[in-house]
Known about the structure:
Elements: E1 2-6, H1 13-23, E2 27-30, H2 31-40, H3 44-53, H4 61-71, E3 77-80, H5 86-95, E4 100-105, H6 108-122, H7 129-143, H8 145-149, E5 154-158, H9 163-174
Parallel strand pairs: 1-3, 1-4, 2-3, 4-5
Helix pairs in contact: 2-3
The structure holds adenosine monophosphate.
Adenosine monophosphate (AMP) binds next to helix 2 and helix 3.
Amino acid sequence: MKIVILGPPGTGKGTQAKIISEKFSLKHISTGEIFRSEYERKTKLGIEAHKYWGYGNLVPDDVTLGLVKTNLPKDNYILDGFPRNVYQAKELDKVVSLDYILNIESDKKIIIERLLKRAKIEGRKDDTPEIIENRFKVYERETKPILKYYDGKVLNIDGHGKPQDVYKRVVKILGKTNKN
Ligand code: AMP
């Protein structure tokens, strides 16, 4: 099974991707998490990518695509944070046939509150009010058009409420019961 999970910043797509990956035994591939861990390890890629994500901007496509290609198994994965623009979506389509495209939806006000709370708990460097605002702009401009590109294939999920409640909606929509 090959899943892509989309949604504006702070909708909880990372949390859902993690739960889905565990329940369905999928590899969880989060480009954002890879960028953060590479930066912590101070690798060349990590330092280069941070020049972009540190300000809420997208990391250049060549860097991101290279990273995804080296981490992508043949099957059974969930991509979280990729694709982030229509070009990446087209490149992905050239090499894989996706089973499900999930889109987690939430209200912007709720998302901002959640992100600011996360900033205090996790200390993510890109969770400051200014950078959050930029991430939203980038989402609207670059990422949202993906929904149109995938038109008709996107499964929208209400992202409000507790992670377990959102996950129940995911399961319902996938038309499968979890294995546990
Ligand atoms: P995330 O953890 O998915 O919120 O990603 C954190 C940040 O990493 C994003 O705001 C982007 O700056 C960067 N990033 C993650 N995935 C991608 C991607 N597919 N293309 C470009 N930049 C990305």
